[in-house]
Automatic annotation (TrEMBL):
Taxonomic superkingdom: Bacteria
Pathway in which the depicted protein is active: Isoprenoid biosynthesis; isopentenyl diphosphate biosynthesis via mevalonate pathway; isopentenyl diphosphate from (R)-mevalonate: step 1/3
Residue ranges of every copy of the GHMP kinase C-terminal domain listed in the record: 211-290
Pfam families: GHMP_kinases_C, GHMP_kinases_N
Positions of the GHMP kinase N-terminal domain: 72-146
Record's protein name: Mevalonate kinase
GO biological process, one term: isopentenyl diphosphate biosynthetic process, mevalonate pathway
Species this chain originates from: Streptococcus australis ATCC 700641
EC number in record: 2.7.1.36
Keywords linked to the UniProt accession: ATP-binding, Cytoplasm, Kinase, Lipid biosynthesis, Lipid metabolism, Magnesium, Membrane, Nucleotide-binding, Transferase, Transmembrane, Transmembrane helix
Length: 299
């Protein structure tokens, strides 16, 4: 039976979610090789649901709008006079899971506003529904990682698994300042055809080696693996000059390894540092070269 929002509600509903970054395996994952993504627990988005004068309106191809709509539909609430207020630390279109994190935060906020319990299973179903609107056929890796406090390994047609990671190292994440262009990057790969497959095979092997290095707490080996992966991503044309320059700068500043991250042709780079002091030194050099958005995360 449908109900209206006249059910007792909070004056405000609040939901939060965190960001993510791809450690290794981007693009190759499309061809059946593994990818590893990391939750970024301290880079967050907060959504507040507050009363409004008019009912909520669904906008097509918008994951936030769809997340709210899917939540209301699940709760059986019609014509909810509410609106969203978003406060996000996550830059959009940088490969950091902004869309998935906003959807998760919005769903949590709607359920909080209407004082309804929200299971992890229901949350995952609703956020994946919203992500399908925004990205047509997403792998689900962004949503899975933004919902987890553990690194996630993903293999297409196999599924997800959590990884235990306690490397004791730091990851420096630097924004190139350029929106990522995943669709264009994928098209460039398709145009290469068979020539790209050899690089993806190597990236697949590197991802497996990276998983072993994480398990063995071998930061130095992991660093070399990340740099090798960047060279393969360069070879298939999905990096960009700005990312390449930041990778070289990080390596020149003593990073154990560095690479682009995400869909490519923009977005972020990641650099592995041995410890906090090392990470801050790399970050200082990157800032001196004009990087405005930068984060240091434990790995």
């Amino acid at each position: 039976m449908k109900i209206t929002e006249r059910r007792m509600t909070r004056s405000i509903g609040v939901g939060q979610a965190h960001s993510k970054i791809i450690l290794i395996g981007e693009h190759a994952v499309v061809y059946g090789y593994p990818a590893i993504a990391l939750p970024l627990l301290h880079i967050q988005v907060t959504c507040q649901i507050v009363p409004a004068e008019r009912p909520w309106v669904l906008f097509e191809n918008d994951s936030l709008s769809m997340a709210v709509y899917a939540s209301l539909e699940y709760l059986g609430i019609e014509e909810a006079a509410i609106t969203c207020q978003i406060d996000s630390m996550i830059p959009a279109q940088r490969g950091m899971g902004s869309s998935a994190a906003v959807s998760i935060a919005a769903i949590r906020a709607v359920f909080d506003y209407f004082k309804r319990d929200l299971s992890q299973e229901t949350l995952e179903i609703l956020v994946n529904r919203a992500e399908m609107i925004a990205h047509m056929n997403p792998s689900g890796l962004d949503a899975k990682t933004c919902l987890s406090d553990q690194p996630i390994k993903f293999i297409r047609n196999v599924g997800f698994s959590e990884l235990e990671v306690d490397l004791g190292a730091k990851l420096v994440i630097a924004d190139t300042g350029i929106h990522g262009h995943t669709k264009e990057a994928i098209q460039k790969v398709k145009e290469l055809g068979a020539a790209a497959l050899a690089s993806f095979h190597e990236i697949g092997l590197l991802t497996e080696y990276a998983e072993k290095a994480l398990a063995q707490k071998d930061a130095f080996t992991l660093g070399r693996i990340l740099t090798d992966c960047h060279h393969h991503l360069q070879a298939v044309g999905v990096s960009c000059p700005e990312a390449d320059q930041l990778v070289e700068l990080a390596l020149g500043s003593g990073a154990l390894g560095a690479k682009m991250s995400g869909g490519g042709l923009g977005g972020c780079i990641i650099a592995l540092a041995a410890d906090q002091e090392h990470a801050e030194m790399i970050a200082k050099e990157l800032r001196n070269k004009g990087v405005e958005e930068l984060w240091i995360e434990s790995l």
